[in-house]
Amino acid sequence: MLFKRIIMLLLSLSLLLAACPAMSEENRPTYVMAGFDNTNMRQWENNRFFIQMEDWTGISFSFQQYTDAAKWKEYKSSLTAEGDMPDVLFKAALTQAECMDLLNKGVLIDLKPLMPQYAPNLWAILQERPEALSAITLPDGRIAALPYINTVPAQNYVWINRTWLNALKMDMPATAEELVEVLTAFKTHDLNKNGRLDEIPLGFLGPFDLKFLAHGFGLICTDYNVFEQDGKVKFMPLEENYRLFVTWCRDLYQAGLLDKNGFSIVDSSRQVTDGNAKPTYGAIMTTAPNNLFRVSWADDYTAMPPLFYNGQQVYRDFFGPVQRGTFAVTSHCGKPEEMLRWVDMLYAEKGAILATAGMENLDYFMDGDGTWRLADAAKTNGALFVAVSLMDGGASMPGIAAEDFALRYSGQTEESKKNYEAQKEMASLCRLPMPYLSLTEAQEKEIDALQNEIGPYVDIQLGRWVLGEEEITDESFAAFEQTLNEKGLPAFLALWQEALDAR
């Protein structure tokens, strides 16, 4: 059956591609676009996104599409000002170090002087959101690459079963203490009504998820365990409240309130597709419950607002609203202003909708009540629809999220809409533990080498304390700090401080 479905998809794809108008000699692409996209079956030269963009702008491309991330990275590093170059890099996945290197080698151009005139949509957004402008600006003031901006990005929240809360007549927990009360109630009641106390109060995946719970003690950090406070780089595992947090997690685990397999299972182990199964998770840490559960379950879960600590709420912004390095113009391009005019379409709702929903009256249809629905072909052959009609997915592309449009989808459940509105409100409470920094290539290498030693040690030690394999004592924390220093923590923090000071 799987083989037959693949054959049918490929046949459908060939029919769609045959229906695309061939370019005449006179309309041969003028510019060359290179970039990375490993989305299944998607070939840029046959994607209707570019056909519609050409209709809107009169600008066409030939393509150098890379589908292997390692080869794309190698290609970027091979570019020289004297060599053969494309005109633009699209879905470029450029790091700030690559931006600085390619600018200094004369491969990329500084886009900042051109943006006010030729990218007015983006420039207006950056004026309204100075933190986004700061994020894409290098320490020397230049801008090598443009961003993707999403004001309500995905977050790694605690998703809590509101149906169970309502059954218990309990309010949403607002503090770490109240969360313990709710989880205890989840554990001691047969809320899925299967005759067994098999409820898992809180599901998590290892130390990564657990550290998001530290916000209940006023602590947030990056994946590198660092955060900024008053212009100084701090290391969360050495903060005073970290020990309180670790002790709290251990107590949760010993009381059976944390998933007993949380340190050993993988995400796929938590996915439930069995139509006869009963929900077992009272709360679960993930970016979205519909990644794990079927829709009928996922709608029962809502994102728990950040817990209060000393009267304040703070939560780690996981992805951040700005994804950098998505689009750049090379020095080979004879008309960079044309390239900015083209990409600026994606910083308006019209372009954002095209990238994520396709072409109106072909891929989707607007209804009289302001909602929209996908064409039957798009719903039936989802993979084909993404490959032929959309550009969203794979590596991040330039543009903005079409948030309001997404909410008007006719297939959206009321609970999904409520969840989105709640996340919108919560976005104001999320903040990046560290501001957007521009690490040099040398700093990246040194930091990554030290992180390979420090990061796993922090996570393993957290697991040992929570599982009770090691006592939480003054002596164990002193040994923990000593080992961190031996693994290079002072140099690690100095590198981050250097990057922070260079902003």
Please explain how this structure is put together.
The structure is a single chain. Helix content is 44%, strand content 14%. The model is unreliable at 1-25 (pLDDT under 50). A hairpin with a 2-residue loop joins strand 7 (226-229) and strand 8 (232-235). Helix 6 crosses helix 7, helix 11 crosses helix 20 (441-467) and helix 20 packs across helix 22 (489-501). The chain has helices spanning 2-19, 48-57, 69-78, 96-104, 115-118, 120-128, 130-136, 162-168, 176-188, 206-212, 240-254, 267-270, 295-298, 336-344, 349-357, 376-380, 382-389, 403-407, 414-427, 441-467, 474-486, 489-501, and strands at residues 31-36, 61-66, 88-90, 146-149, 157-161, 200-203, 226-229, 232-235, 281-286, 301-303, 308-309, 312-313, 315-316, 322-329, 364-366, 372-374, 399-400, 430-431. The protein contains 22 helices and 18 strands. The strands form 6 sheets. The protein has a 6-stranded mixed beta sheet with strand order 2-1-3-14-4-17. It has a 4-stranded mixed beta sheet with strand order 6-9-5-10. Strands 7-8 form a two-stranded antiparallel sheet. With 503 residues, the chain is of the alpha/beta class. It has 3 domains: 29-151 and 321-407, D-Maltodextrin-Binding Protein, domain 2 (3-Layer(aba) Sandwich), CATH 3.40.190.10; 157-320 and 423-431, Periplasmic binding protein-like II (D-Maltodextrin-Binding Protein, domain 2); 441-501, no CATH class.
